[in-house]
Amino acid sequence: MTTTDVFGAIANPTRRRILEMLRGDPRAAGEIASAFAVNRPAVSEHLQVLRLAGLVTEQASGRQRLYGLNAGRLRELAEWLHPFEQYWEQRLDALTEILDTDTQ
User: Fold this and answer.
1) How far is residue 22's CA from residue 19's CA, in Å, rounded to a whole number?
2) Structural domain boundaries of the chain?
3) In the CATH hierarchy, which top-level class contains the domain 3-102?
4) How far is 48 from 67, CA to CA, in rounded Å?
5) Could you give the CA distance from residue 21 to residue 24 in angstroms, rounded to a whole number?
6) Phi, psi dihedrals of residue 83, rounded to the nearest 5°
7) pTM score, two decimals?
8) 38-78 pLDDT per residue, tens
9) How far apart are CA 68 and CA 65, in angstroms?
10) Cα 51 from Cα 103, distance rounded (Å)
11) Strand 56-61 relative to strand 64-69: parallel, antiparallel, unpaired?
12) With 0-12 CB in 10 A as exposed, 13-18 as middle and 19+ as buried, what is 18?
């Protein structure tokens, strides 16, 4: 999977909410689905997108499917975004400096 796949996966607010739910322990698909006002097949599709992007893991536990967060893929995303974060920090620092100069 590429970084683009991860961006596509997290572009959807429902999928971002699922990732937030999985920050703690793994959760059953039914538990995840019950947190949303859409039907279970729709949540299953979101889980599949997240799984294909490598953002979540899936494990069978009896008749249930447990989903957990794959933080490694998020780390890759954070590393890719880091240079942009530095760019914006520099730009905001420069803006702050200009604004401070204008108010003196």
Assistant:
1) 5
2) 3-102
3) mainly alpha
4) 10
5) 7
6) -60, -35
7) 0.76
8) 999 999 999 999 999 999 999 998 999 999 999 888 888 88
9) 10
10) 51
11) antiparallel
12) buried
Q: Please check whether residue 56 is in contact with residue 47, taking contact to mean a CB–CB distance below 8 angstroms.
A: yes
30, 49 Cβ separation under 8 angstroms: no
The tokens for 21 are 């739910």
Amino acid, single-letter form, for residue 84: F
Torsion sign over Cα 30, 20, 3, 39: positive
**Secondary structure class of 26 (helix, strand, coil):** coil
Cα separation of 50 and 26, whole Å?
A: 14
| Tokens matching residue 75 | 């780390």
Q: In the chain, where does DSSP find H-type helix?
A: 3-10, 13-21, 29-33, 40-52, 71-102
